[in-house]
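Good day; I would like, with your permission, to put a structural problem before you. A protein sequence and the C-alpha cells that stand for its backbone fold form the material at issue. Thank you for your consideration; the sequence and its C-alpha cells are set out here:
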Amino acid sequence: MLSELYFLNSKELSKRLAEESISEKLIFLHFLPSAILSGAVVSLPIDMQWAGKEPSSFFVQVLTFITMGIVQYWGFSRAYEINKQIDNKDFFLRYAALNLPISIQTIIYSFFIVIVYGAVIGAIAGSSNVAGGSIIWSCVGVALGASLAVLYFKLLFSAFNQIKAYKNSEIL
C-alpha cells in the first residue's frame, strides 16, 4: 500500500493523473493520510510548551493529534467502504458535494452540544478541587472534540446510506 503512494513525487503523480492511469482506490490512498494529518493538525496543532511545571499541555495536544487522526482514519475508511457498497463510483464527487450540508449540520449540533458541555463542566469544575483537575478536564475536552468529529462522520455515513437506498430502490 505505502509503496504505491507518491509522497513527494507530485510530477509523476500529475503525469499518471493526466494519463488517467490511476485508480480511484489509489487516489483514496493519497487522500486518506492527507485527511488524517489535516484533521489532526487543524483540530489542535502540536505546541512544544509546558503548562506550568507539568507537561500536561503538550500531553493533551499529542493526545488530541492522535485521537483525531484515528477518528479521521476510521471515518473516511468507513465512508469509502459504504461508497463501495453503492456502486464503487464517484466517492470524491459524493464526498465533496455532501461536505457542505453535513458540515453545517455538524456546526449546528455542535453549537448546542458545546453549550451543554460548557455548562455541565463549568458547574462540576467550579465545585471541585481535584488534584490534576486541569489535565482531567482537558482530556474530557479531547473526548468532546473526538465525539464531534464522530458526529460528522455518522452524518456522512447516513448520507452515503441514503444514496445507497435511493440507488437500490431506483426511486429518485
Notes: The chain has one domain: 24-169. Residues 24-169 form one domain. The longest helix spans residues 133-169.
